[in-house]
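ingest -> validate -> predict -> emit
validate: passed (alphabet ok, no gaps, 762 aa)
predict: started
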Amino acid sequence: MDSAYKPEDYVRIEQLLHYPEKLQERLSGIEDTSEISIPKDPIEKVIFQNRAKSSIRKIAQNRGHILMVGRPGTGKSLLANMFQEVLDRSMGEYLRPKCAIAAYPGKDKNHVRFAYENPEKLEQRITSVHHAIEDAGNSMDEFSLAEEIKSVKKIRNGLLLATLATAIGGVFYPAAFIATGITGIGAIFMIMQENNHKAQEKIQRENSDSRRVAVKHLQDQVPEVLYDPRKDKDLMARISEPNARNMKGGFRHDPYQSSNLQTPAHKRAYLGAHAKAPIIYIDELKTMVKVGYMSDLLEIMQNKEYVLEGGRDTGSGAADRSETSLHADNIIIACCNHDTLQYLQDEGDGAFLSRVEDKGEIVQMESAVPESLETTLEVAQYIKQEVENLGKAFMGAWKDVIDSEGYDGVRKRSGVIFGRALPSDYTLKERDFSRNAIMEIVKELRCCASEGKLTALLRPFNGIIKTAELEAILENSPLVEARHVRYAMDEHLSLEGAIAKEVMEHKKALKKYISAITDSIGYVVGLAVISSRSSGRMFGHPLPIHCQVNAGGADVVTAPGKLGDIAKAAAQNVRASIKKVLKTIGAPYVGYEMHVEYIQIHGGVEGDSASVAMDIALISDFIKQPVTQKYGVTGSLTGDIILAVGGVTEKVRSIMDIDLGMEGACVPWQNMQDIEPLLVNAHCRYIQKDDIPGVRIYRTEGENDPFDVYFCKTKYNAYKILMGLDKAEVEDRITQRSRKDLLFIQRMKNPSLDDSQKAKAA
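emit:
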């Protein structure tokens, strides 16, 4: 049989073994991150995004718009911040607004007028008006009820005299006592009235707001300063929830809408980002789509001005409106994911995208970049930046303790936090990463991508770098070493990673149990991954698969469970592949029912990476040949060819745990570069089984516990590794099985036929 491999293929596999040396060579100029200098240009602090950085610089030059499209964690927010910093350094004094925005009363109580004025002169004018109003209030006569009190006193005195006179007359004329009672009651009432007037006078005099209330109608005519450029230093407004209130502004509700207490509209007005900020950074356009603000944004981008309208659907502010327009010549920096981009392309025939492209660019953020000397050094630079940021965080959190107690106080208090005594020379200072530790980070970046690339989803690695730093500090290690990074990778898991860890423990026990009690016919260890939507990391785990082939039934494939469309299509493809083999080798046609079971995969399966595993399990059951349970397999089957799949690095790494008892894996030839990260900081060598090349990785020191990875081009290569059979042996046994099944079916249908007649019929 002709081999699928060429001489140069074996050379390529041997070259894989030199990957750790190449990585070492790229980092040969540095021993640790202390030798790395961080660029002064803020934009160059963002790594991997060369096209986006170039676009940002162009936009800074011509004041256009930019839309960055990419997954979370690729550096969109960081680029926006760096863009602001560069513009502030270069053109800040020209971009920053010079005029204050003042609101004046309009033609009626529901209208206002806006004016752009010099802030110093405006402040002086408003201050002088306030002083004049205050003087007017102070010049008003003091509140007095003297006349009212005087008249009450006269009546009171008269009633008291009448009471006295009638009391004397009552001695001689008893009937006069009736008049005494009446005048006495009147005198008491007038005394109470006098005291009431005096109390009111005192209260009014002690109330400091009385004069202000008297001149409130004048205060209501004073303009309100809505924006003072001297108090706002930022060039960029960050909007996480873009809507009319945040972007345009509006009018607040007035709870006192009547009498002398109501607040005029111009004093209830407030401004949004369009009127105040030269640069507007919209963190996620999806929120703008949800709140329906896109049409307003398009209009403002076109006209560069807008009229301020009521800020609420109900209440006093709903009817308010400005008579004059507000300027809105903003630079728009927006971010979105690919699902939002699809909506923007359809909405209004891509009107927003057209506005952006008219004066700017739409930039696709890189989710992965090829590994090279440049990108490897950028990783080292990124680690150095995070180390410095952590050092600043330490100083910010412990500065007071360091200043008052020194680092000895930090050690004692940190011991309380960690619940153990720390070494006497323990210091809470950042550690630089050693070269091997940098290589370990590069390795993990490679594991999250494919095709020899480094993932650009860097946000999850911030936590990994910090965790490795803290572990090195607790050990009081002078540098962060590779072991600290490996520890951080195990500890710093996303939600999906924690779930994958639990799944992995379950799969270990399940795999051991199945291997112990089955004859391994029809059973194969597939490989699967769980992908984290938030971090982009993948977590592999073994996927036990069992298949059966029954003759005489309908010619169908049954795959129960929660299978996705791609997984179902892969199962149908395997059936077609097996039928093609039967036809090619001239085996008698017999209807077969093929049953595929993903063992205890309750959450469902999607993808075609298990199609090779399904084919092997079906063929194993068809020819009754056991499959080794010590090897895993992954790959997409198309005819006889095995094509590349995703997540191979994590799939293979998931079964390298010695406790699982696995000894190797078969992976697609096209995924050979995905094995390179597993060779970092490990001993390995070239191996070959018949014509199938591979790599042996030693999992423990002293070249113990080998793990073999074979690179398969066709399904027959996988048959050789997992079942020990070559193509001719498999086809011969398939033919034998088909003839036996045909003979069995014929006997069932017509028992009177003899063997020669049945053979002739066949």
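The first helix runs from residue 7 to 16.
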